[in-house]
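sry for the spam today, last one i promise. struct tokens for design, 60 residues
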């Protein structure tokens, strides 16, 4: 299964509780923190909701 690298590039200050919960579920706590996940529909759904705070790249 493909892997993706997710980096939080903007702060979560001023976001809703739901958005903060999504960041926590992705494993992101701080700005510029990077995590890797499998490319699954669940992860991609969370990424789609948080597109304005994160960047996504494919890991080779």
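last one done:
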């Amino acid at each position: 299964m493909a892997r993706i690298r997710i980096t939080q590039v903007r702060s979560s200050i001023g976001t809703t509780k739901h958005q903060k919960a999504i960041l926590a579920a992705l494993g992101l706590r701080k700005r510029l923190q990077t995590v890797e996940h499998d490319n699954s529909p669940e992860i991609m759904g969370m990424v789609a909701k948080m597109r304005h705070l994160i960047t996504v790249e494919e890991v080779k």
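The chain has two helices and three strands. ok im logging off now
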